[in-house]
Amino acid sequence: MKNLTQPLDDAEMDELDSFLFDRVDEDAYFEGKDEGLLGLAELDGYFTAIVSGPETLVPSQWLPAIWGDDEPNWVSPEAYEKIFTLLIRHFNGIISALMDPAFEFQPIFNEREVDGRKYTIVDGWCLGYMKGMALCPKAWDEGGEGVFEMLQPIFLFSDEPGWEVLDQMEEDEVIALQEAIPLAVRSIHGFWLERREVTHPADIPAEVAIRIRPGDPCPCGSGKPYGKCCLH
Predict the structure, then answer these.
(1) How many whole angstroms separate alpha carbon 43 and alpha carbon 66?
(2) pLDDT per residue as tens digits for the range 110-151
(3) Nearest to residue 40, comparing CAs of 67, 75, 13?
(4) Within 10 A of 208 (CB to CB), how many other CB atoms are there?
(5) Could you give the angle at the alpha carbon of 28 between the alpha carbons of 27 and 30, nearest 5°?
(6) What is the rounded distance in angstroms from the CA atom of residue 109 to the CA atom of residue 138?
(7) Which tens digit of pLDDT belongs to each residue from 139-148?
(8) What topology does CATH give the domain 10-228?
(9) Does the reported pTM lie above 0.90?
């Protein structure tokens, strides 16, 4: 059985990042097409929202949004298994990071270099986070104004109205908002974790819950039991 709790190393992160970009058929683009998650930064934001949110979601609930209208054509069960394992390990890595109060949580942001200077780009990560929230919007709404306020740094970098506000700010103000995102994530995670523990004290930890039992349906959507499908 594979170790699904081992964090991804740099090479594996690059592999997953490239896979998410390369699976999209740019020649088949049409207006309104959902291209899913484009790259590791967006995936990291997406998973962080799921892990930090009000409900425990299983892979069959969050896999479709990763692919959008460009679900890969898997050349073999082994090819599917490899990517799915990387996804689960990264998911579990975020859980471990957020559950450890001593760990300095750092989202995976993009960078851009202009004239020798590096700039942090958080938009893709924030877009991914919003897509994660969209999996259970009513449950997120129950957080009320408290959660809404904590989400403000993420909201600003995730859509055009927010970008217009950012354009009116000084550079140091924008950087301060970017740097506020990790703390906002920790605050949101703590908010929902406390409420999940109160309302569902018997729930198993999210890191364990993500492991599918052999008799469960395989998240690839084949309808076969997990123990007799792609991952075995």
Answers:
(1) 8
(2) 999 888 889 999 999 999 999 999 999 999 999 999 999 999
(3) 13
(4) 11
(5) 115
(6) 27
(7) 999 999 999 9
(8) Four Helix Bundle (Hemerythrin (Met), subunit A) (1.20.120)
(9) no
